[in-house]
């Protein structure tokens, strides 16, 4: 019998639709897989066995009645623990929300349910999505299925690890500075940051409101496109939501034709700090695009050099404001409330106990950057750099259709290696941050293994805002060409857990 956990989402949906298998059988296969291996991987913070089986039974019941169902009905999914889910714990990887049960669904969660997608549970993440390794989770790190001693990326390492270990065919992540694409790169999976505002942020616990963006994670480009279509669209509950049609991402993923497309190689995304094997695989990808009929040119975006510095002023500034709501008085953890302390003392004790070191570091940095006398020098200057980066993108997209680069400068590093060096950790997002600052769409997909360590390397594709379909067009072409060259999907080379 076919191992149901090894199928793509599209294949799984087709088997359910044809009656070859049922949604319940598929859900049980994945829940059994989670029970068998997740103790080693730690991709999940909460597995909703009863909820998943109930959702699967509902899909089977509707199909039996002849009701029209979505293209992903019955397909399991791992949901990053940053989206509120009614009746299911939502912790954001933090002790300050340990055990919190939301009374409502995020818009994205509701869209998944409406599409008949079966939510298996909530995945591990860096606390409040602050990190590049999932080591900042209050509930312990997640291992990379390629090598459990290494990081699965961050902040959405639980989602990427669930995919790479075949615990789920689909997952959801969020991307503030690369937290969908970076985990995809180091686990050999596909991750997409849609155009800012294309997927609702309502019910997504905020880190940095002008940067945060939910998006699809999958094992193939087509699966990501199908999930993208299911979760995207205007939401009146989100004031930053774009009121525009969803680009034809599924059609683009099925075509995969790049003949005549102009592809720009970003000059600034190379040089010191880039692992030799990463650049070797990236150069292979560029040559592959030429072979497929694309025109490849080098473009310069000089302001990208300042993106990392600008990001680490803007994001902490916004997080210091957003996290002010976690005061121990309204919901979540409350410490020191013995009747003798003031509300201010309870709030201070709660935050001390509930927030981890990285969250405290960013709150302090952001509060300082926004303080009187420093606002213009730091936060204001960072926003000016953001404008320059946006202009660099506009000039580049005047010459080319998409930009390409390595997704991350290195492959997955060992757990603990950068724990005491925040700056080294921040450099993991060097290539991904500019797209967040400008609000553009971007994707990471596998482009091979680095010869030094045999670990996955990601190719990043960046498209203009609202041109998300270009990502899928290029991604599908590259994926098909590499799969033909390798003779199988890259994940088939991963160790068996």
Number of helices: 16
Determine the CATH topology of the largest domain: Amidase signature (AS) enzymes
Number of strands: 11
Helix and strand succession? Answer: HHEHEHEHEHEEHHEHEHHHHEHHEEH
Number of domains: 2
CATH class of the largest domain: Alpha Beta
Helix content: 25-40%
Main sheet characteristics? 11 strands, mixed
Residue stretches low in confidence (pLDDT < 50, at least 5 long) are none
Going by CATH, the architecture of the largest domain would be Alpha-Beta Complex
β-sheet strand percentage: 5-15%
Structural class: alpha/beta
Overall pLDDT confidence? 96
Arrangement of strands in the largest sheet: 1-3-2-4-6-5-10-11-9-7-8
What would you call the shape? Answer: globular
The CATH H-level superfamily of the largest domain is Amidase signature (AS) domain
Q: If you compute it from the alpha carbons, what radius of gyration comes out, rounded to the nearest whole angstrom?
A: 21 Å
Q: Give the N-to-C terminal Cα separation.
A: 20 Å
Describe the SSE topology.
Layout: H1 9-18, H2 23-41, E1 44-47, H3 49-64, E2 76-80, H4 107-114, E3 118-123, H5 157-164, E4 170-174, H6 181-187, E5 190-193, E6 214-218, H7 221-231, H8 249-255, E7 262-266, H9 276-291, E8 295-299, H10 307-322, H11 343-354, H12 357-370, H13 376-399, E9 402-406, H14 422-426, H15 433-438, E10 441-449, E11 456-463, H16 468-486
Parallel strand pairs: 2-3, 2-4, 7-8, 7-9
Antiparallel strand pairs: 1-3, 4-6, 5-6, 5-10, 9-11, 10-11
Helix pairs in contact: 2-3, 7-8, 8-16, 10-12, 10-13
